[in-house]
Each structure stands twice: as C-alpha cells, then as structure tokens.
Specification:
about 170 residues; Alpha-Beta Plaits; 4 helices; about 30% strand; elongated; lyase; Cyclic pyranopterin monophosphate synthase; MoaC
C-alpha cells in the first residue's frame, strides 16, 4: 500500500484503503540481510542489584534466565505483536551490562535475518522480555523496579537502508 492509498494519508502502512488494519504484503520486496539493535534498562534498589551480581537471588541466575527468555521472545514476536510477520531469525544476541552507580541493568539485543522485512520488533521484544524477566525474578524483594529507555538503536538493510539513533 502506498501513502496515497491510506485514507488518513498518515504514511502508516498497516491500514488498507478502507482504513482497516491488515498485515502489510511484503511479497514483492527483495530479501536482504536485516539487522536491528535495541536496548533498555531496569533500575532497582542497590540490594536487588547486589543479589543479581552475586548470583544469590532465590530464583537463580537472573541474567542467564533473562537472556534465554529474551532470545525466546525474539523468536516468538509474531505471536505477541498483531500484524507482525513471522520471521526465520538467523541470529539473536542478548547482552546485559550492570551499571552499579545507576543501580541498573542495561539490556542490549541484536537480531538478524535474511528476509523481506526488518527485525526491529524482534529486537524490541527481546529487550522488553529480558527486562520483564529480571523484574519477575526479583519482584519479591523489589516491586519498585522501573524499566526505562527501551528503544531501537540502529537498523541495517532493507529498502529504507541504514538508520542509527542520535546519541
């Protein structure tokens, strides 16, 4: 669908000519290498961060389990986000960085595929689920944790080319 087909002329492509939501047809698009990187953070009490870092949280290896959950979520994004295309991902990496002065853990996910549509949603989903898993595993000691700054940092490939967030 082109912007002229959109009755609201918003540039959004998930609406048909009658204004109804639909899955975008990517059939005619070329398959290219697609990469997206997203990141976010979760702030917590210093004692909660100490449990995570020391590996003494009652539920086990918080960051290890959060990494697996994030990877699994990236692979299942189309089951979670309406109108999102199911993709065969070729690579998902998830890294956590402990920021002790800020009492936070930062999550960074990089997702790759060779396909007809981008993987920004998969990278964002991985980050969100990674952070939610940390919350779930630590909520008994800190219900006030705050997830913040979740965003796409960069994307590569596809018709629109490369993009990087301004720092």
């Amino acid at each position: 669908m082109t912007i002229t087909d959109n009755p609201a002329n918003t540039g959004l492509t998930h609406f048909d000519s009658t204004g109804q939501a639909h899955m975008v047809d990517v059939g005619a698009k070329a398959e290219t290498q697609r990469v997206a990187v997203a990141a976010g953070a979760i702030r917590m009490l210093p004692a909660t961060l100490a449990l995570i870092v020391s590996g003494t949280a009652k539920k086990g290896d918080v960051l290890g389990i959060a990494r697996i959950a994030a990877i699994m979520a990236a692979k299942r994004t189309s089951d979670l986000i309406p109108l999102c295309h199911p993709l065969a991902l070729t690579r998902v990496t998830v890294d956590f960085d402990v920021d002790a002065p800020a009492n936070s853990v930062r999550c960074r996910a990089q997702v790759e595929t060779f396909g007809k549509t981008g993987v920004e949603m998969e990278a964002l989903t991985a980050v969100q689920i990674g952070l939610l898993t940390i919350y779930d595993m630590c909520k008994a000691v800190d219900r006030g944790m705050v997830m913040t700054d979740v965003r796409v940092l960069e994307k590569h490939g596809g018709k629109s080319g490369d993009w990087s967030a301004v720092a």
